[in-house]
Amino acid sequence: MLDLGGHRQSYAWGSRTAIPAFLGAEADGAPWAEHWFGAHPLAPATVPGGGTLEQLIAEDPAGMLGEDVARAFEGRLPYLMKVIAAERPLSLQVHPTKEHAAESFAAETAAGLPLESPLRTYRDSNHKPEMLVALTRFTALCGFRTPRRAAAILDGLGTELTDRLHGLLVTHPTAHGMRAAFRTLVSASMRPTPEAVDEVVAACRARAEAGTSPSPRIDRFVTLLAAHHRGDPGVVAALLLNPVTLQPGEAMFVPAGALHAYIHGVGIEIMAASDNVLRAGLTPKKVDADEVLQCVSVTAAPPLRVAPERQNPTSVAYYAPVDDFELAVTELTDPALPHAPPRPVPGSGPRIVLGLEGETVLSTAAGTHRLRAGQAVFVPAAEGPLQAHGDGRFAQASVP
């Protein structure tokens, strides 16, 4: 087992306290949005001796990943694990399919755009399906409502913009109508003015205060988004989307093409090893509406909640419908003493284990390791089955 040093990402929307507290680190006043544990080339985890997990895997892909995983994923760790702490809303975004990402990454590379170029949209050639397991109450927007339900949300707001969107969805109550409504908001040639967006926000606020809203939660979300991104058309797009609230331990899967925005909370994210994000709004970063419209799915779908499945008396697993990753959480209540009986931890192959609470002792054929909250280790496939004892809780990322 190898100790992992995570990679900090200090985006403006991050919490200044949540991740430092989780890691047992001192807060420095700067936002700490994400902490990455993985082998993505943009921010690979460090290992003892000064190297990175990416380098170790490249030196021995079969031993680190197992021959089957190394063969299936071309010698690369297929997942990336993160702790995420959203104090402010994230961008309205979508992730591409694997085919579209590979094609677009190749085109930008052939054009000579450096990976760090602000003109570049694709940082790698991979897709980025992701799953979030909430550690605190977590709010988000994810996926389009049905056209008729979205029309009911828009009805009665009485602004020129919402009347136009309402008319589109009533006349065309299909995915085509929803695409037209969304295009109206984000396309460079049609996007509404900041004044038009402000009118919609005022109407949502007034409706919420009057107690006449068909969805009080979405009116609150619109008001919150506007407080951080005044005049941004993405604020109005929220009226077309499903609001989501996850309680601790609940999970949501976001497939390629699903329009979404995380709003507030702390969670564990696991995703395919990619950093491809296509932004439609609610951000000072690059917005690429044309690329978003190419990749987004406007088919009405509720948020894909993932129910934990009991694996054994101490572990539950969150299975996503992808080949790249799965996540399990193990909770033990035995004293972390040498004489405590070890318990089997389901899973195999290359695993990243992240301590969530308390203290546990992990063991494989290669030895033992004491794991505390906020610490992470990589378990190479060659070390075989994992066992644990102690009084704590940890998350394990692995390959299905």
From TrEMBL:
Pfam families linked: PMI_typeI_cat (PF20511)
Co-factor requirement: Zn(2+)
InterPro entries: Man6P_Isoase-1 (IPR001250), Mannose-6-P_Isomerase (IPR016305), Pmannose_isomerase-type1_CS (IPR018050), PMI_typeI_cat (IPR046457), RmlC-like_jellyroll (IPR014710), RmlC_Cupin_sf (IPR011051)
A single GO BP: carbohydrate metabolic process
Binding of Zn(2+), residues: 93, 95, 130, 260
Record: active site: 279
Catalytic activity: D-mannose 6-phosphate = D-fructose 6-phosphate
Domain Phosphomannose isomerase type I catalytic: 4-145
EC category name: isomerase
Co-factor note (free text): Binds 1 zinc ion per subunit.
Keywords: Isomerase, Metal-binding, Zinc
PROSITE patterns: PMI_I_1, PMI_I_2
GO function terms (MF aspect): mannose-6-phosphate isomerase activity; zinc ion binding
Superkingdom of this protein's organism: Bacteria
Gene Ontology CC: one annotated term: cytosol
Documented EC number(s): 5.3.1.8
Assigned protein family: Belongs to the mannose-6-phosphate isomerase type 1 family.
PANTHER family attached to this UniProt entry: MANNOSE-6-PHOSPHATE ISOMERASE
Protein name per its UniProtKB record: mannose-6-phosphate isomerase
Organism: Brachybacterium faecium (strain ATCC 43885 / DSM 4810 / JCM 11609 / LMG 19847 / NBRC 14762 / NCIMB 9860 / 6-10)
